[in-house]
Amino acid sequence: MRLLDRYILKEMAAAFLLGLMVFTFVLLTNRILRLVELIVNKGVGILTVLQLFLYVLPFSLVVTIPMSVLLATLATYMRLNTDGEMLALRGAGLSLLRLTRPALFFGLGATVLTMVVSVWVLPFSNQALRSSASSSPRTDGSPRIRSSFGWA
Questions:
Q1: Is 151 helix (H, G, I), strand (E, B) or coil?
Q2: What is the reported pLDDT for 93?
Q3: CA-CA to 65 of 20 to 30 Å: which in 23, 35, 75, 113?
Q4: Angle between helical axes of 96-116 and 3-37 (0-180°, round to 10)
Q5: How far apart are CA 100 and CA 6, in angstroms?
Q6: How many CB atoms lie within 10 A of CB 43?
Q7: Separation between Cα atoms, residue 32 and residue 44, nearest integer Å
Q8: Please, are residues 55 and 91 in contact by the beta-carbon 8 Å criterion?
Q9: Are the C-beta atoms of residues 102 and 5 closer than 8 Å to each other?
Q10: CA 44, 48, 52, 53: dihedral to nearest 10 degrees?
Q11: What gap in Å lies between CA 87 and CA 93, rounded to an integer?
Q12: pLDDT in tens, 92-104
């Protein structure tokens, strides 16, 4: 991997992580408020609420990973263009295909990650959420959780 590829991938990774955090937070805001309501009003333990949050997280990751890749690609190449680096690289004889190769590899990696989350992690979290929703009555006094992610 050449220095240019590492430079572009580093720029993309920073924008990707920021976008992933922001997009995931925005998509899960409603769920987070419901989880906080469980802690405050129903007296559910924090560990139980964190477990429920981890069960719900893959639902949003399937959507937010591709959105974050798009944001990272656009932000990276826009910054390269704004700073004149794209013009300098093109002037040095690099083709557009060569300049987009890191983005293609980054997108391919994100596609594999999204596939892993949607094929293996999402069904597991679905099953775990259902089993926690239909579990026997709680001995610690915490409420039963309906499978529609609403609470009794």
A1: strand
A2: 93
A3: 35
A4: 30
A5: 12
A6: 11
A7: 14
A8: no
A9: yes
A10: 90
A11: 10
A12: 999 999 999 999 9
**Gap between the Cα atoms of 117 and 150, Å rounded:** 24
Give the tokens for residue 76: 């990276």
Residue type, 126: N
The token pair that represents 1 in the structure block:
């991997």
> Could you tell me the two tokens for 86?
């794209």
> Rounded to an integer, what distance in angstroms lies between the CA atom of residue 136 and that of residue 83?
60
Alpha helices in the chain (DSSP H): 3-37, 46-82, 85-91, 96-116, 122-133
CB proximity list for 81: less than 8 A, separation 6 or greater: 87
Q: Which residues of the chain have pLDDT under 50?
A: 136-137, 139, 147-148, 151-152
State both tokens at 39: 């802690």
Dihedral angle, C-alpha 29, 35, 38, 44, nearest 10 °:
-160
Q: Which two tokens stand for residue 63?
A: 């959507």
43: left (phi over 0), alpha (psi -120 to 50) or beta: left
Q: Judge whether 28 and 60 are in contact, CB under 8 Å.
A: yes
Give the C-alpha separation, 146 to 149, whole Å: 6
